[in-house]
Sequence to fold (185 residues):
Amino acid sequence: CEPPVNPELDEAALEDGEHSGGRHLPQHLERQLRRRGVAQLPQKRPVTLPELIEQLQLMKAAMEQTVAPRRRPNSKMRSQAAQAIFELAHQENLVETASELDRLLAERGSEIDEGWLDLEQLLELWHHKHLDSSVDPEIPVSTGEVHLPNHDRVGVFWALLLLSAQSKVELLQEEFYQDLKIRAL
Fold:
């Protein structure tokens, strides 16, 4: 073997060979590489009939494990909810409450500032009206903050909705979760 003529060129060639993984790369690599339009399709092998049957049986078993909800309880729940609403409306005497509320608004219409009344003010008037009608004259009435039972508030609100549907009152709420204002029409 003859020693190389230019040892520096040989070292440079060896370094290039090390960086390229020991293979010699073409000089104009960008001309050699071509971009594909789409990715290569994966190689497919034919599926045998036993494999197909086995896969279908696995899918069937998985579907049987997840039981579909039955429709019957849903219809039962609907009928129970409808019955509860009917009973609640009947217990609240919605029509009677609405007519009493309409009379109260007509009686106190002159006392309402600028025609609008807050829901809390209406509930206070409602509470005082019921106290006046059901109070024993010998028992003193406390004059303090009014605490209505929750069903009274709901009943009055339902009655207001009924009166609004009958175009007897106008309900106004400037923003969500703000005070409700009522005006008799």
Observations:
- The domain at 83-134+147-184 is CATH 1.10.10.580 (Arc Repressor Mutant, subunit A).
- The beta strands are 117-118, 169-172, 181-184.
- The first strand starts at residue 117 and ends at 118.
- The CA atoms of residues 15 and 21 lie 10 Å apart.
